[in-house]
Task: structure prediction
Amino acid sequence: MSGLITMDDLSNEEIMSILDDAERLLPVAEGRTYLPLLQGKILGNLFFEPSTRTRMSFETAMKRLGGDVVNLGDVKTSSVVKGETLYDTIQMVDGYTDIIAMRHPRQGAAQYAQDAARVPILNGGDGAGHHPTQTMLDLFTIRQAHGTLEGLKVILAGDLRYGRTVHSLSHALTRFGCELIFASPELLKMPAEIVNDLTAHGANVTETEELLGSIADADVVYMTRIQKERFADEDEYTKVAGAYKLHASNLEGAKENMIIMHPLPRVDEIHPSVDSTRHARYFQQAFNGVVARMALLCRLLGINVPQKIADGGEA
Result:
């Protein structure tokens, strides 16, 4: 693999193989076993947009596997403010590193970077485009809870217009035959071109503005934040802010094994009362970013994950 820009870069078989690698790497991600598979390798973290989980989980993943990390740091203190182009930045970091994780506000920037680089690029989010490494940790979390990805009923709720996490995830879930319910305000509906593409690939898609009525039948409820930073007009944001708020009391009729996910950060769309329910899975989901990205780093760097990893001590 030359890089991971969208989920189209992975076949279903490759997805399952990477998730299997991630499963075996759990004791390493949790710090119970030291396995320096990436010793001598350097990851370049290029985050042109704010990030907590994605940047830190990439860094943790690399260091848990014995590798090292160099960070662009605050864009305001980099040569970007002097007018350095993305092409030149990539050319420079390409010479320092073995692999690059990148987040950028412009849709398509990750593909542009991969075209400019010799080392693999891992797309950590490109504007309202794609976020495939998030999708991999989401799929890992779903399979961890349900034992399968096949044929599940999944609600994706909130900002479906600008939410790159749900754009990538909906495509992946369609490939595994999941039924999709898109719950959003009219202003934040899933883009028509994505819905058309999903249905052309055989997806069973329902669009609604109502969230709570579908929860009883759902296997997964994937909440998202209304992203203020994606709105050019603050009045438009005000119209939809706080559109959905999930409370523990809304979950009384839910399936016992239904899980609630969220790419985080949350604002007010999941009430803290949900945190202590058996359905809450979003903090485990955030941790799973480490193990999923460990597996992806190994795959893109051509390092095989051992079939058996000791749980404790050095593997």
User: Anything to note?
Assistant: The chain has a mean pLDDT of 90. The longest helix spans residues 282-300.
